[in-house]
Amino acid sequence: MAVERFEEHRDLLTGVAYRILGSVTDAEDVVQEAWLRWSGVDVSQVEDDRAYLVRVVTRLSIDRLRRVRARREAYVGSWLPELIVTPDVAEHAELAGSVELALLVVLETLSPLERAVFVLREAFGMPYAEIGEVIERSEAATRQLARRGREHVQEGRPRFEVDRRLRRRLTERFAEAAVGGDLGALTAMLAEDASLVSDGGGRAKAPLRTITGAGRVARFLSSITSGDRPRAFMESIGAGPVSGFGMEIAEVNGGPAVVVTADGRPVTVFSLVVEDGLIRTVFLVTNPEKLSRL
Asked: Please, are residues 152 and 115 in contact by the beta-carbon 8 Å criterion?
C-alpha cells in the first residue's frame, strides 16, 4: 500500500525536485531519499500524501541545492542544467515553460528558498499558505520570497517567443545554415548582441567564456559545424573516431533544439532563446553528463 501511494506521486515529486535543482540525477536522488523516509513512517497516519511528500521533497531539494552550489561555483566553464527530452507540450505550454532552459539558468541566480517558492507557486500553483508550511515560514514571509524571486526572474528572463511554430522554423533554419556553413544566414538570424553560452564541464571541448556579438557567434558556429569540421570537432571533444553523424530537431526542455548525434549517441545540443524573431542566446551543451537523458 505504501509503495502504491508513493508511486502515484513520483512524477510530480521528480518534477518539483528537477525544477529546484536543475539536475535529473540530483532530483532522482532526492526522490529516492524521500521514499526511504516515507517507508519509515506510519503512512496510515498521513492524511494528505501529496502535501506530505511535496513538503519532504522540497526540503530535501533545498538542502541539496545549498550543498551543490559550491561545486557549481568551481565548475569548469559555464554550468547549465541537465537536459531532458519533453513530449509535444503545445497543449501544456505553462508546464513546458517551467522547464525552459533559459528559465532554469535564471533560477540559478535565486537563493534556494526563493527558488523553491518560485517553483511551487509559478509551476505548480500552490497557495502561499501551503508553501509557507512546506518551507516553515509565515505566509507573509513566503509572499516576500515569492516577490523577490519573480523580480529577479523578470529581470533576467528573456521574453520568450510565444509562437512555437516560429521557434521551430527558426531552429530548423539555424541547423541548415550551420551545417551549410552559411555565415551570412547565421548572422542574419542572430540579434546584434546575441551570445553563446556553452557547457563542456571540463569533460568535452567547449568555450569556457561566453561569446558575445552576432558576428563572433556566427563565426564560431560555422567553424565547428560546416563541411568536414563536425568530425574534427566531435573527435576533439572526446567522442573518439566517428563514422556517422545525425541531426534532428527534438523537444528538449519544453522547446525545439538541435540534437547532434555521433554513431547514434547524442554528443551536442544547440538550444535557442528567441526574442522578437531573432536568436538572442545559443546554449551549446557538450558535457556528456548533461546529455545522458537524451
From this structure: no
Asked whether the beta carbons of 195 and 210 are under 8 A apart, the reply is: yes
pLDDT in tens, 125-176: 999 999 999 999 999 999 999 999 999 998 877 665 557 888 999 999 999 9
The whole-angstrom separation of Cα 17 and Cα 143 is 21
Residues 168-172: contacts with CB within 8 Å, 24+ apart? Answer: 168/249, 168/256, 170/272, 170/274, 170/277, 170/279, 171/249, 171/256, 171/257, 171/258, 171/272, 172/249, 172/256
**What does pTM read for this prediction?**
0.89
**CA dihedral in degrees (88, 97, 193, 82; nearest 10)?**
-80
- DSSP per-residue codes, 147-213: HHHHHHHHHHS----S-HHHHHHHHHHHHHHHHHT-HHHHHHHEEEEEEEEEE-TTTS---SS-EES
Name the DSSP letter for residue 126: -
Separation of alpha carbons 192 and 209, rounded Å: 18
Q: Rg (Cα) of the chain, in Å, rounded?
A: 20
Nearest residue to 279 (alpha-carbon basis) of 156, 178, 193: 193
Placement of cell 505566509 in the chain: 139
Cell reading at 166: 516560429
Q: Is 185 exposed, middle or buried (0-12, 13-18, 19+ CB in 10 A)?
A: middle
Distance CA 56, CA 183 (A): 51
What CA–CA distance (Å, rounded) separates 144 from 77? 33
Lookup: cell for 293: 537523458
Could you tell me the sign of the dihedral formed by the alpha carbons of 234, 83, 206, 283, in that order? positive
DSSP state of 81: P
What is 219-279 written as a DSSP string?
Answer: HHHHHHHSTTHHHHHHHHTT--S---EEEEEEEETTEEEEEEEETTEEEEEEEEEEETTEE
